[in-house]
Amino acid sequence: MPGATGFDLQQRLSATGVSLPIIVISASDDGQVRDTARKLGAVSFFRKPVDDQALLDAVLWAISVASKGKNKEK
Prior knowledge:
Layout (H helix, E strand, L loop, with lengths): L5 H10 L6 E5 L4 H9 L2 E6 L4 H22 L1
Parallel strand pairs: 1-2
């Protein structure tokens, strides 16, 4: 994302009313980065390198949550 960060994307999604479970993957071990991601709506935060199974579990959970929310709107 030239000229933008993941935090910028999270803020744009939120500002447009898009409600998605966001999973953040970062090389940073700074707790402030994790806290900012969570404040902006991240449901999961992983530090690189990521455990494959933990990430898969988080993605499956996020899909389940998003699907349930989508069904409620119908």
